[in-house]
């Protein structure tokens, strides 16, 4: 295949390529038109192609050459795919959602990496540069001893990198929830900015939990497919990835429960504080009401027992002082003051 038959990358579109033969990296960053040359030169060749922000014609042409299913190509060119694994004749289509968390805003940012995986070729498709593919290449280089396993090795490096990022994000969420839990019983109420931040954190946590659960399903489907792209020698490494992502899922489930518990506890504590304040206000109102009642009674312009007599002054003074004092002691003993 020559350059004149292969559509050149469009504006904003970039491509990365690698070719391995029996575990040895023999070519890197070669033009896309050399893909078939590498595949035809040696049956043990494994080729990786990464397309970032490809246009429709570019991916469609590759799909025709490698017989990729049109529905998988449509998903790769679409937006907002959930993590999943689709099985097609001759290849698999894997969707991954790398994430990162902004602790200042509480917002969870997402990228999307789609992978077409066949026996000798893996094609990754990224919508933009937010997910740095160079980090995956670095992981491949540090695990070069496994490169002899071809596409199974390439897919493992990609998957392991995404899951490791999930572990890091889960740890950040745990630290945030610990900090929120420590201030849970502070009497100072949260201001509007803090409430908005906590709402955004919880919203991001729920979204992260959804992504992790979907990724668990995709990884388990990948491992459970006997005729898929995971060979026997790489199977333990994929099992390790599955253990990690299940561990993340368990941690996010706990965090989801903790988040709901924090909200319920905060509301209960707020109600408790309101009830406590109401008891104090009511108690003081009752104490003040007694001398008000006494002075009001003895201040009437009508004759009453003790009117104009010393006994009247003494009785009113005793009632105005002793009764509130007794009420104060009663409320204090019941912890209303």
Task: Label this structure with key terms.
337 residues; alpha+beta; 7-stranded mixed β-sheet; two-stranded antiparallel sheet; 8 helices; rod-shaped
Describe this structure in words.
With 337 residues, the protein is of the alpha+beta class. The protein has 8 helices and 9 strands. A 7-stranded mixed beta sheet has the order 2-1-3-9-8-5-4, sandwiched between helices. A two-stranded antiparallel sheet has the order 6-7. Strand 4 and strand 5 form a beta hairpin.
Give me a quick take on this structure.
The chain is built from eight helices and nine strands. With 337 residues, the chain is of the alpha+beta class.
Shape: rod-shaped
Characterize the main sheet. 7 strands, mixed
Uncertain parts:
none
What proportion of the residues is helical, as a percent range?
55-70%
Sheet-strand content, in percent, reads 5-15%
Topology:
Blueprint: E1 14-21, E2 24-28, H1 35-41, E3 45-52, H2 56-66, H3 70-77, E4 84-88, E5 91-96, E6 99-101, E7 108-110, E8 113-117, E9 121-126, H4 133-142, H5 151-182, H6 192-224, H7 235-298, H8 310-333
Parallel strand pairs: 3-9
Antiparallel strand pairs: 1-2, 1-3, 4-5, 5-8, 6-7, 8-9
Helix pairs in contact: 4-5, 5-7, 6-7, 7-8
